[in-house]
Structure formats: C-alpha cells, structure tokens
Amino acid sequence: MRCITFMIAFLGESVSPKLVERIQKIVTTNCQVWDMYGPAETGVCTYYQIHSINQASGIPIGRPLPNYQCLIHDEFGQLVIVGQQGELLVGGVGVFAGYLGRDDLTEKALVKIDGVTYYRTGDLVRIDSNGLIYYIGRTDHQVKLHGQRIEVEEIERCLHDIHITTCVVVKWGEDHLVAYVEGSGISEEDLRTHCRLHLPPFMVPSVFVILDQLPLNANGKVDRKRLPAPDFSTARDADHLDSLILTPLEERIRNIFAEVFHNEQPNVNISFGRMGGTSLDAMRALSMIRKQICMKVDATVLFANPSVRQLAQALQPLLDLQEDPVTTVTP
C-alpha cells in the first residue's frame, strides 16, 4: 500500500501556535506542517518544519533555503547577537533586480555587502542559539513611547491569545497606545487584565476599542486611516473599584495627579495615560513629586509605574533610604 504524505505550509502571515495545535489535532499522522517566509522581492527564502510548539518563543520562520543567505542588522548596520532584534536582509538567487522605473526605491531596498546583493526586507527578526530565525514584526510598525521602543505586533500577538477575531494596535498622538479589537463576548476590562498579566506596564494600551468589524482596504488589510477616534472618557470612568483605604504616600501622589491631570478624584489603579494625560503633564507631575515627596525619582520610574498605587509601591523603598521620608519639601 502506498503511503501518501500531506503537506500544509504557512506563508505570507505570521502563524499562531494555537492554530498549528488545532491543525495537528485534526490532521492525519502523515501530514507535515511547515512555516515558510519570503517577500515578493526574494521569493520563498526560509523554511521550518513544525514538530513541536514552544508557546514562550513562538514558531520560527526557520533557516535560509539553499542558495540564500540571511543577515540581521541593527539600526547602525551591524550584525546582531543571538536574541537581539534587527532588520532581516536576504541575499541569494531569488533576489529581484529592482523596481521598474523606480531607481529611487531600488536604491533604498538593495544593498551590496561583500559583493553580494541583499534585499532589505523591513522585517524585524531575531535569531536563537540554534540558528533559527523568528519573525517579530515590521520596522515601520515600531513606535517610540515615553522613551521606550515598542513593537506593536507583540501587543497584537498577546491579544490574539484570548480568541479574538483580529486586532490592530496604533500609537495615538504622542502619548497613547490604542488597541482596536474585532470580536464579541469580551469586555475592555478582560482585554486590559490579559495585557497586564503578559506585558510590561508601558506596553499596555491606554484604551481598548471593541468593534463589530475593523475597516479594511482594497487589499483586505486593516485600514488604519479609517479607525475611529478613541474615547478617553471611558478610560477615566473605568476601574470603579477604588474603595481601599489609601496610605499617606498614595494620598500625596493622588493629590499631585489630581492637579496635574485635571481629575478631581483620580482612580489609584489606573494609569495617567488612561486619564488622557500627556508626556508634558507627566513631566509636570514628576517635577512636583521631586519637590514634595522624593528627589531621587526619575522619569523611567514614573512611566514604568503610571498609576498612583504602582508609583507609591515603587517610591516607598526610595523614601525608606531618606532620613526623613515624611517631611514635605516645599518649593
């Protein structure tokens, strides 16, 4: 009897571990599952056969195919080390010659290194100690918020873990991340709690907007220009459970937040970003905290601990080092 082997290959979009697990449960034992990668400018250039799934590290796009070479460069054009993010450059037999009639674009896309022509993919990747390449996101989807570089696709992957249909995260103005989610049967608080459990504080979106359907462009991709403006008042009204007795330090910080962020009774459990506060407001708050509470606090502490309660917990060890932590220093 002839044995037939089936092959399922993913190409063009990131593959989620949960999707692969579902496929492996329903297909026959004679089925191979592969993850492959390749822009139109290079053709398929990497491959990886999926045998097992590591939920923590995700699914790699694999290694270069024969007659292809892959380099990973940092923002200064230097090769990255294991685990470091960088832009993927692809060289080899399938690299295109250029864009017809667009020498300006060709010059930006192609670079010669040691006599080999490489295509700059614009994709952020990392490589592990086994030589496997992992796709992270697009370089043009990386944003900088409060001095922190954030890959929004990492936030989107986190949200996809809770069985939503699709989502997109965008930087709104200069100070906020907004998550637009397509799905039903899930609340903003469910989304926020999930992100808080799996992401650092500076990567948790200020507002979650739940829509029946995200707007799409002619190519079937999410049209970011047509996304509705977020309503920051929902963030101000959220987290009503604020009835715990405040410590003296929390009370002092809340008074500062009330003045700076124009909120008479700010909730001690929500970040100043969700109150609609800007980075300029945060700098004013930092100045007042230094004058009235603790001179040793810096901006990174404030942005990493953006709520009254979080900030109080972060400042208490610093105050314990001071000779008189309860003395108020006036201007």
Describe this structure in a few short sentences.
By secondary structure, the protein is an alpha+beta fold. The chain is built from nine helices and 14 strands.
Describe this entry's structure for a reader.
It is a single chain. The chain folds into 3 domains: 6-138, Roll (Luciferase, domain 3), CATH 2.30.38.10; 146-231, ANL, C-terminal domain (GMP Synthetase, Chain A, domain 3, 2-Layer Sandwich); 248-321, ACP-like (Non-ribosomal Peptide Synthetase Peptidyl Carrier Protein, Chain A), CATH 1.10.1200.10. 27% of the residues lie in helices and 24% in strands. It has helices at 17-26, 103-109, 152-160, 188-198, 233-237, 248-260, 279-292, 299-304, 308-321; strands at 6-10, 31-37, 46-49, 63-64, 68-73, 86-92, 110-113, 116-127, 133-138, 142-145, 148-151, 166-172, 176-182, 207-211. Strands 5, 6, 7, 8 and 9 form a 5-stranded antiparallel beta sheet that branches. The chain is globular, with a radius of gyration of 24 Å.
Give the end-to-end Cα distance, rounded to a whole number of Å: 89 Å
Largest β sheet strand count, sense and barrel closure: 5 strands, antiparallel
What's the architecture of the largest domain in CATH terms?
Roll
User: Can you tell me the CATH topology of the largest domain?
Assistant: Luciferase, domain 3
Q: Helix count?
A: 9
Task: Provide the low-confidence segments as ranges.
Answer: 236-243, 325-331
The top-level CATH class of the largest domain is Mainly Beta
Count of domains: 3
> How big is the Rg?
24 Å
